[in-house]
Structures are given as C-alpha cells and as structure tokens.
Design a protein that fits this description.
With 157 residues, the chain is an all-alpha fold. The chain is 76% helix and 0% strand. The chain is built from six helices and no strands. The longest helix has 28 residues. The radius of gyration is 20 Å and the shape is globular. The two termini are 38 Å apart. The relative contact order is 0.15. About 8% of the residues have low confidence.
Length: 157
C-alpha cells in the first residue's frame, strides 16, 4: 500500500509534466496537446490544481512513510467516506469514457482518453489512501498498540 501512495502520484506527475511539455515543446514522441486536455478548465487553473493535488499526495505519502502526522492517523469513518467517493469517482469516469467513445467516435482510441485514464489513477490513489485510513496499519501504530497492550497487561497482574 505504501508503494501505491508513491507510485500513483508519480504516474500523475508524469501526466502533468507530459501535458506541459506537449504544450511548450510539442515533441513528436508525445501525443499532441489536445489529446491531454479535455477543455473543462483553463490550463493555468488546471495546472495549479494539479500541482496542489500532487503536493497533498506527496505530503500524505511522506507522513505515511514516517508513520506520523495528522493525515495518516487512522480515521475509519473518513476512510469509509473516501472509499465511497473513490468508487463514485471511478464509476463516473467509466460513464464519461463510455459516453465519449459513443458520442464522439472520432476520439476513439486516438489518445484523447488521457484525461479520463488519469482520473482513474487519481481514483485509485484515493481508494488506496481511504483503505489506509480505515485500517491505520502503520508499523509504528502496531508497535505502539503492542506496547500499550503489554503495559496494560503487566499492570493487571
């Protein structure tokens, strides 16, 4: 699970960088800029929001690696809510993909599914983080719980 908290943001960062490079340099090895952009937000705003999402993802992954910080404490209720949101998000992207392919057939398999694909990456990250929040399975919390149980058990004797 820890690996996914780093791997999925790395994939998303690749997407963000790829779109920026496609806009600035338009290299032949990347799809054209239009394939990266769904035109739902102005690009400067989109880039800013993507950077904020990446910063949050990196902070959460770093806190999780250190096993301390508010964003990585077990929160089962928040984990359940985020699980539902991740599933709804992924399902919405399935519907978006199906509608795009059905209603705009010229976009079919031409690389214009890049934005939708990376929404799946974000949904997968959100689901991974939600699972972590529900379980709270950090090594330090396990050790702390063990020590707490050991101390409590020894005091009862």
């Amino acid at each position: 699970m820890r690996t996914l908290l780093w791997l999925l943001p790395a994939l998303f960062a690749g997407r963000v960088c790829g779109q920026l490079v496609a806009l600035i340099a338009a290299p032949s090895f990347l799809p054209p800029y239009a394939a990266w952009d769904s035109n739902t937000l102005p690009y400067p705003l989109l880039l800013t929001l993507q950077a904020l999402v990446l910063c949050l993802q990196v902070r959460i992954a770093a806190e999780q690696g250190r096993t301390r910080g508010f964003l990585v404490r077990p929160h089962p209720r928040a984990g359940r809510v985020l699980t539902i949101l991740a599933r709804v998000y992924a399902a919405a992207m399935v519907v978006r993909w199906a509608l795009t392919m059905a209603l705009v057939p010229e976009l079919r398999w031409s690389g214009h599914a890049i934005p939708i694909t990376f929404h799946f990456v974000l949904a997968a990250w959100l689901g991974t983080y939600a699972r972590f929040l529900k379980r709270g399975d950090t090594p330090r919390s396990t050790i702390t719980e063990f020590k707490t149980l050991s101390v409590a058990g020894s005091q009862e004797r």
